[in-house]
Design brief:
homodimer; 523 residues; alpha/beta; five-stranded mixed beta sheet
């Protein structure tokens, strides 16, 4: 049997490829039968040309058509949930239940349906009418989107089914999905459902395309191509910055979500009130997905002293009592081990873990490191390194000034959390620290862990550089996430019949929110 | 008398500078007395540190304080309109009346007042509340803004008084204004009014700062500095791309408005109906500000044949009958002459103009070039070069397919216009051409010239790369322009009393539009 077919211009066809790769089962370390191709440039070129045509055709398709496709796709994923979940479990080592079947898959179909609703409602277009001057503007599709999914969410962030995909499609753009090479078969199974749903809905055949893998060079060429409208990327800082450099130089827009260490501050009153509960929450959050969440709490900040010692002992004990889950890959295990050793080399002390687990598969002992604020500040840049996996690091501070200094010097992060006393005992500290943390994070939490990322219109999954490349945009939360894949289009003095439906004086859809002469009105 | 003082950290102080420069009167070519400093890096460093502090302080200032400042500033500009207009006239050669006194100055104070109203209303923050999940988000200030104003609008786009300035301040950010070196005294006079208004309103002293000039190297260093939140730039493509490269590499956000040739299509029916009127409109538009508008129609597209010949003859005659106005600088004159010669070298035929005017000052004959679509397509990249000044180029097409090919291959532009018959005779051509033009421009016009850029909430002054660096954002139009200087901030589970006022369950301001559980509501 040859390598799997790529999906380009409506055809599942043999890739233009010389190299192939296989996924591995990270729970056993064994390769999974089935070769997948590393496409050469002609596959990208073909996909870009097809996407360019599809982008033009999509502009003439009513939002209902796009919504129907997204909904049919969601239903298709549900109807074949069993093999999709089984494949993802095999390729990622993530638990079938609850994680893959009961949490991530429903989240993914929910995202697709929310995106469908947003496409249908059209409020995402933020139609703005100045009736007196007859100037009207709205968001419109930006053109072919290229989506690079990460390794850690085989459904919800997959290039062919995840949040970026749903947002780009709902905004009226074709998507060229680049699979993550750690879960190619899962991606193929998802794409098969997309393919069925496309055929049913009558959208252009090249509305969705799939390439499994590319050389780095071709990846850079792809994001630089003038046919690309925008790029969505979720992954490592090194890969993200490389793609960003190429895209920026070519004037292409890239929305890259990169690394984050997600500081969590425990104020003294909070620890005094609920030490055991908070230790449990921290352990749970650190181990969610074997620590392979973008929002995993990698940096824990607390006051030095007996309560901190008791808390950290409890955390260490919680971590060491839980069985380490498989990491996503051999490379992930290597990087985690290297990252922990690097932090130790920069002055962190190992409290628990810190070793590769014996036996089959890719597992690393649940790990806690610690040091004090003085040590952290002395190697600030080095110690802000994201270590992706089931490890976290606690920093104890002697006084609030140390914590202020530390927060002041933190890089941009996706999230930052502060736990404080319910009685108000920590309010003075909160008032000092919140403004400092606020400026460094996209999402600020009170009294909860950052690992849950609700699909809410008010969610912001993003943050200041280098957590992301565009701090004004979120990759989770509908309809806001759609505007990443949109341009602003203005119509000045354009005759009524020539306007897009959403900008005419009267519109058919009673649900669409528009800003007319400064007032938001519906319908 | 030494060189003019820069305005840094609340003080008008001697610049750290070895070089100085003078403005010239472009109507005479003579230097204007008064030296201005080229600042060295320590001035930038000082300004950045002061702006960083001011940014923190501004977050604790109610929107009313910011609005009061902007309004006091607008009033101050009006109260000293006479010397400001006189200085601008001397430094730019632009007519005192109506242009500077009756159009640009009122537009500038109007922008400042609209920005004040937007700051007060707070709808620009797009507060989004998910009450059930207690997740809330809104736009918030991005941090110190650096604004580079262009040469062609000494008030309305000035770094210390123009649209970018007003937007950045209204969004709660301090501004470091980099004057355009062609009108330093005008900028100084404006800044003096800003300085008075700041003192009255009690905002942090470093909310506005002014540097007159920098080396290229320091300009690149400035936009790369980690203390910068965002950069607004309006100017040439070369300068814009240089700054963009530096800002991108450092992860700083830059909103660069660069070059545009603003295609205008005259469909046959339109010419048949109103040839004389349209020729007059085109001539007026081409000569507005001596052709030195970002939206000047540099590319005129029409069907070959007798009507086109008659129309172009009328345009040529109109251009040659009008006295050439002074260009902004000797360099501008050199570049215009070189640009026209370059287009001629690439195959354009000179119809009228094409020579530097004799006598004092910097004037170039009003110029019309022409060629046909085949010739244009043969040197497409070269002939899309923006020639900044009182010159335009007509391209005749033999059939619609040629125009389709041409529009398909155009770069991104700020605007594109289509004139068509009022009877519907051109509707079939419009239907073919509009989708092609639409994708290449930010603002699409019907039956009007692009040079007017109304300050309307529905305006889009922006467009696809390389017209601008961010096709989703406008630099004119309030409140949309404010979001360039904003980040998205989310509050997840944050206690009510700790939320910013705009995100609490109930707010005091009855005018603020917020999206609560999917509905836009006021107050």
């Amino acid at each position: 049997m040859g390598a799997a077919n790529v999906w380009i211009d409506g055809q599942w066809r043999a890739a233009d490829s010389e190299l192939t790769f296989r996924a591995e089962n990270p729970a056993t370390g064994e390769a999974i039968p089935g070769d997948f191709p590393v496409s050469k440039w002609p596959d990208c070129d073909l996909a870009l040309s097809a996407a360019t045509k599809a982008a033009v055709e999509l502009r003439n398709i009513a939002p209902e058509g796009i919504a129907d496709f997204l909904e049919a796709y969601a239903a298709g994923i549900e109807s074949s949930a069993e093999p999709i979940v089984a494949s993802a479990h095999e390729e990622t080592g993530l638990p079938t239940s609850p994680r893959l079947r009961d949490v991530e898959l429903p989240r993914t179909t929910n995202q697709l349906r929310q995106a469908a609703a947003a496409a249908r409602e059209e409020s995402w277009r933020r139609a703005t009418l100045d009736l007196g001057k007859n100037i009207r503007s709205c968001y419109a599709p930006i053109g072919p989107a290229v989506v690079f999914g990460p390794n850690n969410f085989p459904f919800a962030f997959n290039g062919v089914s995840g949040g970026d995909f749903a947002a780009a499609i709902a905004a009226g753009n074709p998507v060229i999905a680049k699979a993550h090479p750690l879960h190619p078969n899962t991606t193929r199974l998802l794409a098969k459902q997309a393919s069925k749903a496309l055929a049913e809905s009558g959208l252009p055949e090249a509305t969705v395309q799939l390439i499994y893998h590319l050389s780095n060079e071709d990846g850079l060429k792809l994001v630089s191509d003038a046919r690309v409208g925008a790029i969505g990327f979720t992954g490592s800082r090194a890969a993200g910055l490389g793609l960003k450099r190429a895209a920026d130089a070519a004037g292409r827009l890239i929305f890259a979500e990169m690394s984050s260490i997600n500081p969590v501050v425990f104020l003294p009153g909070a620890l005094a009130e609920a030490e055991e509960k908070l230790a449990g929450e921290l352990v749970d959050s650190c181990l969610a997905g074997a620590g392979q969440f973008c929002t995993s709490p990698n940096l824990v900040l607390l006051w030095e002293g007996a309560p901190a010692e008791s808390f950290l002992a409890r955390v260490a004990s919680g971590l060491s009592q839980r069985a380490p889950q498989p990491l996503l890959s051999a490379a992930g295990l290597r990087q985690l081990a290297a990252g922990v050793n690097y932090l130790i080399g920069e002055g962190a002390e190992l409290v628990t873990g810190g070793v590769v687990c014996q036996g089959a598969g890719y597992r690393y002992a649940n790990t806690l490191l610690r040091l004090n604020a003085k040590q952290f500040l002395a190697h600030l840049n080095e110690l802000q390194r994201e270590v992706f996996g089931n490890a976290t690091m606690a920093v104890t501070v002697a006084k609030v000034g140390e914590l202020e200094a530390l927060l002041e010097l933190l890089e941009g992060n996706l999230t930052g959390a502060i736990y404080s006393s319910v009685t108000g005992a920590d309010d003075h500290l909160y008032a000092i620290l919140e403004p400092l943390l606020r400026r460094k994070v996209g999402r600020l939490l009170n009294d909860k862990m950052p690992t849950g990322v609700a699909v809410s219109p008010a969610m912001h999954h993003g943050g200041p550089f280098p957590a992301t490349s565009q701090p004004g945009f979120t990759s989770v939360g509908i309809p806001a996430s759609l505007t990443r894949f949109a341009v602003l289009e203005c119509y000045d003095g354009v005759r009524q019949g020539r306007l897009p439906a959403v900008l005419r004086d009267t519109i058919a859809n009673p649900n669409t929110w528009r800003s007319i002469d400064g007032k938001w009105v519906q319908g």
